[in-house]
Amino acid sequence: MSVQAAARRPAFRFGFYESLFGIVVALFAVVTLVRFTRGLGATTNLSDQFPWGLWIGFDVLCGVGLAAGAFTLTAIVHIFNLHKFEPIVRPTVLTGFLGYVLVSMGLMFDLGQPWRIWHAIIYWNPESVMFEVAWCVMLYTAVLALEFSPVVFERLRLERPRRIIKVVGTPLVIAGVILSTLHQSSLGSLYLIVPEKLHPLWYTPMLPFLFFISAIGGGIAMTVLESYLSKRAFGRHLEMDLLEPLGRGMVVALGVYGLLRIVTLSGNGALAGLAHPGYEEGMFMIEFAIGVLVPVGLLIFDGVRSSPSGLIAASLCAVMGFVMNRLNISVTGMERAAGVRYVPSWMEITVSLGLVALGFAAFALAVRYLPIFPEAPAHAVTHPATAPGRAPARAALSPESET
Amino acid sequence: MSVGLLFDQTRCIGCGACSAACKEQNDLPLPIEERTTAYTWTVVEKENGANIRRLCFHCLDPTCVSVCPVAALTKTPEGPVVYDSKKCIGCRYCIMACPFGVPKYQWDRAVPVVGKCVMCIDRVREGKATACATVCPTGATMFGERDDLVREARARLVNEPGKYVDHIYGLAEAGGTGVLVIAGVPFASLGMKTDVPQQPLPLLTWQVLSKIPSFVMVWGVFLLGVHWITKRRAEVHDAELAGDDGGDDGMIRVVDDGGRRSGGKGEERR
Amino acid sequence: MDRSAARWLWRSAAAMVSVVAIAGALPDIRLPRDIVYDKAKDSPGPVVFSHETHVAIADNKCTGCHPAPFKMLKPVGRVTHDEMAAGRSCGVCHDGKTATGIQDDCEHCHKPAPPQGGGAAAAQPKGGGS
């Protein structure tokens, strides 16, 4: 059964995932109503003492960071000219684009007056990190849309627009990498302004750099996970010959990140605090273990990197550690100074889960109706080494290749 | 010209006239709450038996002004830091960033805005004192030019050293504030933040933001250069492969790794 | 001296010291001057409002009257018996139960001869003649 055929299985089956999805979306609709009729106080556990919570810490900080696979992959293929990774560019750009759309939707919930989100276009404050993030995210979402448009043009058989985009391909990718570098790091810069509030285990002048590096690592991990989930959902095979080198990339990114964390922590004296572990110290150690030590420790070994389960386990840990790090920065690290403990309300959680669910659904719809994955037999090899000479002719059929 | 307020904690009797006048001047709804909120912009709290007033400090280089993405908060030339609710998108970065925890939000509204003391900018522009200073029966709140208030505060600390803690809060906090406080008990016991950095906080982010233009250029040139160099190598590698192969193993030909792994030919037979 | 006398001496000394200390420590309180409400058409006489008496009753808190029902910065400057009967303005307290009301002794509020420029003489709370 080909990928497209697999995706064209009957849409409505009341299986476990479908029911779960239905429940989450129904609750999501209810919460949306409450949020916009009764305000933030009725929907969230936010307060004057704790104005930013799950919707910033997860939806924005993690959503943007984990969509970083798009700029990383397009850079690898179009800037470093490693065209063998071409086949995974489309799904990764789709993930990226959907990620940024979901972040924008999440912001609609978090902003007090979201219908005014366009104000940043006419009211400028170049001194504000948030102004810069807003602009970069706006522009980059447009770039992602343009980078993804050839898929749509192909489907609609609009050859001329497709060729136009192809012409601006490389400049577009370069613009995307620059914009991504700026806003990925700026999400960290947001927290530079609260040195007396953010716990020393997380506050460092290197925050922008740490956010950028961790985004690369997180983005690659998400790319691996997305490949795996696609395999399970649509009968895709796992392109181990592409994912294995990405695994190496993860080792480098996470390794550099981990080293930098240790260096900055020893620099500001926070490492000494680990000798007397309290709540924050515990959270940090878990975050560091899951997000850095375990993935790096696993992926150093060739055997792990070339095994699908090893790669996926390591990537899962990296993503969990990534999410934990950003929640530690936005929540854990800010609680002591705020004098309050923050736990998201069930409504906040519903919105975040609902957005993720909608993202999955949108991805599935896109795969069903658009040429995201190149045509390849579902029973193709999962590891090139086991079937010599049968390496699928992916690149030749890759829509981006010269024909 | 930069006006400010001097709050002498030793003179405060906790009568609440300042809160009442503020409500009237800014048309805020009653009641006067126990702590500052988006609807109560100043209160007198009792902290460890001592009266202390809470209000915006109107920093000289305000953090809230620097972080607002749509410039809804601005530092006026007269001194007060004011808020334009028409621009605000409700991102609450000002609430998150203010080192004194001043701005508050209307969490109960479907169309919420921020609320904080604006130092009666309308009265100031008419040459009048702030409402709170006008009604304060003991003169605990004084209005005037910041320089004059600093001098007055210093004079009081010098003339009655036993009465005051030897520190003018707001002289250096956050790089200096328009609202100064002198007290008869330690500031920490009054619930005031003593961990505020002694220089303006906006510098912390400006250090990074100001480097963006040059960074964009350097990074752009670097990426372009990498693309150009590696493109050449990829083309060369492709050409070599095309020249070497008999051509009938078309599948192998296009599996291309940019010539990185090893020097080159025919190693891709997997 | 015996113990009860000594105790008495200590206590009065302590009281005197406290009074002096508090009086010395209390900042000078500058209340708004007395407010004269001019005699209206059917009124038996002008009414002088004294802050001193009312602030003492309100335990040095201004918020009982301000900003509602009385503004501080832009006072209305006019009170009618109709308002008071409806429980507004002075009638919030001067309802006949909490404090003297409009049904009671007129001269409690309407002093026949207005004092010059306000001051301590007008601050006598009850029954004091002009």
Question: Please, could you describe this protein's structure?
Answer:
The complex is a heterotrimer of chains A (403), B (270) and C (130). By secondary structure, chain A is mainly alpha-helical. In chain A, 69% of the residues lie in helices and 0% in strands. Chain A has helices at 3-7, 16-38, 40-43, 54-66, 69-79, 89-110, 119-122, 129-155, 159-167, 169-189, 207-234, 240-267, 279-299, 302-305, 308-338, 346-369, 394-397. The two termini of chain A are 27 Å apart. Residues 376-403 of chain A have low confidence and may be disordered. Chain B is α+β, with helices and mostly antiparallel strands. Chain B folds into two domains: 3-200, Alpha-Beta Plaits (2-Layer Sandwich); 212-254, no CATH class. Chain B contains nine helices and nine strands. With 130 residues, chain C is mainly alpha-helical. Helices cover 27% and strands 5% of the residues of chain C. Mean pLDDT of chain C is 77; it is low at 118-130. Chains in contact: A-B, B-C. Chains A and B meet through helix 2, helix 3, helix 5, helix 8 and helix 10 of A and helix 2, helix 3, strand 6, helix 7 and helix 8 of B.
